[in-house]
UniProtKB/TrEMBL annotation:
Name used for this protein in its record: Sigma-54-dependent Fis family transcriptional regulator
PANTHER family named among the record's database cross-references: SIGMA L-DEPENDENT TRANSCRIPTIONAL REGULATOR YPLP-RELATED, TRANSCRIPTIONAL REGULATORY PROTEIN
Record-annotated Sigma-54 factor interaction domain positions: 146-375
Domain called Response regulatory: residue spans: 7-121
Entries under PROSITE patterns matching the protein: RESPONSE_REGULATORY (PS50110), SIGMA54_INTERACT_1 (PS00675), SIGMA54_INTERACT_2 (PS00676), SIGMA54_INTERACT_3 (PS00688), SIGMA54_INTERACT_4 (PS50045)
């Protein structure tokens, strides 16, 4: 069966209607996606390339009109066909106002459905460059779970593309909350070993004496309590990826074993004599300064060089502020649906505050702020829903704060201008002696 090229998403809380629509659509060889709620529909829109949306209006939780508004905003070129039971005039008006392409009343015949779909899709064919634009937007704003359009994020994605299909060791550095783990997961799940395990180990979260046994496994009798042979995370990750988070917290003993893994591609269990070959990609991450640790002799330099074959630096959010609106959008959607069963918006003023803030806690902090604001607000996030420390930044954006010397110089200049460069008068106004004024001018 030759499928048509269009993907159609059908949304209805009534399973019978969904299946009827799907039967019809499949008989015309369209590829269909089904959703029984707006929540599911939005997820599918995000994960796939949909060419036409067919939706009911009256649905529990989030209403179909909300979905139409959402689609009009986020996928302006996507045609929408509303299929509804008894449209009230108000419903119809609202739907048209919020940009519906077409309207079909239940019950409808198969022919009526076909005509409506053709009409919607024809219109799209006539929009030149549509397919191209659609593919571009998808690609440009998200890569797996990673959202961003900034050059810094693009650079990260370029590297991921290069490394995802080979097993080179990768080192990810960046401040706390910048998305290091997200990058590690993207490398694994976008690559060709994605079916094999991805195992994340927080080296700072496991007690030092246990970490060795957890990572490399142990043999029976290796220590009290070791009642039988056990595999570690390295053996469990076989064929896939092990993500060693907070690598700076690994003890010297663990570091020495790791070095052997990297050099020989083999693991020796705690208490064992012989080594086992392993086939695992290692991704390490840290937000501590390993170079400093090397100087203080708490991190092995030889291990450092083995780990940093490929380095990925995830920039702090303040260096890629253009990504803020996209990230806010993602979190608004996530928490709006989770807490309020609807899409929450954000006022331009509140967004301006978010863009101005420096985000020392990076994306994790942004996510927390949006989460809290969604809880505090009803429909739209306003400045009042943001934490105080962000609001203080409104009056005194840090970039505008200047050293006293600079302000003093400007003010002296102003007084001199106002007094026609009369130094005696200027000194009087400034409340200093002529001599002090002269000194300040000289310096
Ligand atoms: N580019 C991004 N797009 C979408 N979500 C992101 C992005 N970067 C980070 N996040 C989200 O921000 C949160 C923090 O990310 P992550 O845990 O990967 O940071 P991290 O650098 O490992 O932080 P830490 O050093 O504190 O462990 C996660 O919920 C993650 O999903
Ligand atoms: Mg992390």
């Amino acid at each position: 069966m030759q499928l048509r090229k269009e993907n159609i998403l059908i949304v209805d809380d009534d399973i019978n209607i969904l299946e009827l629509l799907q039967r019809h659509l499949q008989s015309w060889k369209y590829h269909t996606y089904k959703a029984v709620s707006v929540k599911e529909a939005v997820q599918i829109l995000r994960d796939t390339n949909i060419d036409l949306l067919i939706t009911d209006l009256k649905m529990p939780e989030i209403d179909g009109t909300e979905l139409i508004k959402f689609v009009s905003e986020h996928y302006p070129n996507l045609p929408k066909l509303v299929v509804t039971g008894y449209p009230s005039i108000q419903d119809s008006l609202n739907a048209i106002k919020s940009g519906v392409a077409d309207y079909l009343t239940k019950p409808f015949t198969k022919n009526e459905l076909k005509e409506a779909i053709d009409k919607c899709l024809d219109r799209i064919e006539n929009l030149s460059g549509y397919a191209f634009a659609k593919a571009e937007t998808k690609k440009d704003t998200a890569y797996g779970e990673i959202i961003g359009i900034s050059e810094k994020i693009n650079d990260v994605i370029q590297i991921i593309e290069r490394v995802k299909d080979n097993k080179a060791t990768i080192f990810i550095k960046g401040e706390s909350g910048t998305g290091k783990e997200l990058v590690a997961r993207a490398i694994h799940y976008q690559g060709k070993f994605s079916r094999a395990p991805f195992i994340a180990v927080n080296c700072g979260g496991i007690p030092e004496n246990l970490l060795e046994a957890e990572l490399f496994g142990y043999t029976k009798g290796a220590f009290t309590g070791a009642e039988k042979n056990r595999d570690g995370f390295f053996q469990a990750a076989s064929g896939g990826t092990i993500f060693l988070d907070e690598i700076g917290n690994a003890s010297k003993a663990v570091q020495t074993r790791l070095l052997r893994v990297l050099q020989e591609k083999e693991v020796v269990k705690v208490g064992a004599q012989k080594a086992d070959k392993i086939d695992v990609r290692i991704i390490a991450a840290t937000n501590s300064n390993l170079k400093e640790m090397i100087k203080k002799d708490s991190f092995r330099e030889d291990l450092f060089y083995r780990l940093t074959v490929v380095e990925i630096e995830v920039a702090p959010l303040r260096e890629r502020k253009e990504d803020i609106p996209l990230l806010v959008d993602k979190f608004l959607f996530k928490y709006g649906v989770e807490y309020k069963d609807r899409f929450i918006k954000i006022s331009p003023e509140a967004m301006a505050v978010l863009k101005r803030y420096e985000w020392p806690g990076n994306i994790r902090e942004l996510e927390n702020v949006v989460q809290r604001a969604v809880i505090m607000s009803d429909k739209c996030i306003e400045i009042e829903h943001l934490p105080h420390n962000l609001k203080f930044n409104i009056d005194f954006p840090e970039s505008e704060l200047q050293p006293l010397k600079v302000i003093e110089k400007k003010y002296i200049q102003k007084v001199l201008n106002a007094t026609n460069n009369n130094k005696t008068r200027a000194a009087e106004i400034l409340g200093i002696t002529r001599k002090t004024l002269r000194q300040k001018l000289e310096s």
